[in-house]
Design goal:
Elements lengths: L1 E3 L13 E4 L2 H11 L5 E6 L5 H14 L4 E6 L19 H11 L3 E3 L3 H4 L19 H4 L3 H16 L3 E5 L3 H13 L5 E5 L19 H33 L7 H10 L3 H13 L5 H15 L6 E9 L13 E11 L2 E11 L4
Parallel strand pairs: 2-5, 3-4, 3-6, 4-5, 6-7
Antiparallel strand pairs: 1-2, 8-9, 9-10
Helix pairs in contact: 2-3, 6-7, 8-9, 8-11, 9-10
């Protein structure tokens, strides 16, 4: 094991010894000596750590406290890379990763070899993601979620945490992990942490480093599309609330549009009519359209954005929501800019003001 010295910022910290543990035996030794029953956490990564990962680690540290035990795993899992994907190209920056992890509050970093995780070769028995795993990312990357869930299940067994922290940026992954933990009775709380963005709005990703300056400008369309959709939804919710409060505006969406028309608000009336046309009292169609308009413009940029999917889905199963959907949803997008494939999403709530 390699010991990394770190200055203490307080007394009694159980995570003061910051160690790299490369084997399962080392991990078991560390857990036996520094583990904190009821306060053990894991943050799983594939390395190339950035501020998004650091936020996960800090959140884990805050939840378990100074005397808790936080394991950060660094493992590039070959099972979740398909043919033609960037397994060999994926950045491996372990020394830098250790600095990020320990600065954010990791107790140990578990960075095993492929042989340590899969002794004897790839496992013959694997977790199957089921119907949700065949949608969106699963359709674009067949087998990806089976490989992801297999390694997550294995790492949950090896690290035995009370809490496991995952980013909302990989929303479908998070939903599948939660479903696996519930369906297979894993004794762990799965904690989602909001997406961390760069100052220009681009969701933090290890793959952002592949983007040229021009490609990055095009890639900003992903977050801009989500922001546009969120703004449209907020406006529609506000319009419905205002229209519903006007005399004679109770009931059908057409009445709300008429009420807004009486206020002389042409755009508001148009929006309300669009809501009425798409679905009674809801605006899923208009929200999708707002995002797609931004992405369509980006498809004409140089270099162009090549859209993989734009989907407004139920967070429970990642199926597309109907136009009359009320409640929580996730607007998810995936696209390629140059040779780099990026994903992003935002949570939305329909009918929040009703």
């Amino acid at each position: 094991m390699t010991l990394f010295a770190r200055k203490s910022t307080g007394s009694g910290r159980r995570y003061e010894p910051a160690e790299l543990v490369p084997t399962v035996e080392d991990l078991e030794y560390a857990a036996a000596h520094w583990g904190a029953p009821g306060h053990n956490a894991v943050v799983m990564t594939m390395g190339a750590l950035h501020e998004g990962h650091a936020t996960l680690i800090r959140t884990a540290r805050e939840r378990v406290g100074d005397k808790g035990f936080v394991v950060v795993t660094v493992f590039v899992n070959p099972l979740q890379f398909g043919a033609g994907e960037d397994l060999d190209r994926y950045p491996r920056t372990l020394e830098a990763d250790l600095e990020v992890a320990f600065a954010a509050g990791a107790s140990v970093v578990f960075a095993p070899s492929v042989d340590a995780v899969y002794p004897g070769g790839e496992p013959q028995v694997r977790i199957t993601a089921g119907p949700m795993g065949e949608l969106l990312e699963g359709a674009s990357r067949p087998g990806h979620f089976d490989g992801m869930l297999t390694v997550v299940a294995k790492l949950l067994h090896l690290t035995a945490p009370d809490l496991a922290f995952f980013g909302q940026k990989d929303a479908q992954q998070l939903a599948l992990i939660r479903r696996m933990a519930r369906d297979l009775n894993f004794p762990v709380e799965i904690v989602g942490v909001p997406t961390v963005r760069e100052s220009d709005g681009l969701a933090l990703s290890s793959r952002n480093r592949y983007l040229s300056a021009q490609e990055r400008r095009t890639a900003l369309a992903l977050s801009h599309a989500l922001f546009s959709a969120s703004d449209r939804l907020a406006a529609q919710e506000a319009l419905r609330a205002r229209a519903a409060s006007l005399p004679g505006a109770q009931g059908r969406a057409e009445n709300r549009a008429e009420a807004l028309s009486r206020l002389g608000e042409a755009r508001a009336a148009a929006d309300a009519h669009a809501v009425a046309q798409a679905a009674e009292g809801h605006g899923a169609g208009a929200v999708r359209a707002a995002a797609r308009a931004v992405l369509d413009d980006a498809a004409k940029a140089d270099p162009p954005l090549v859209l993989d999917y734009l989907a407004l889905v139920d967070p429970a199963d990642f199926t597309e929501v109907a136009d009359d959907h009320a409640g929580d949803a996730i607007l998810a997008v995936a696209a390629r800019v140059g040779s780099t494939r990026l994903i992003d999403n935002t949570p939305l709530t329909f009918g929040a003001t009703q």
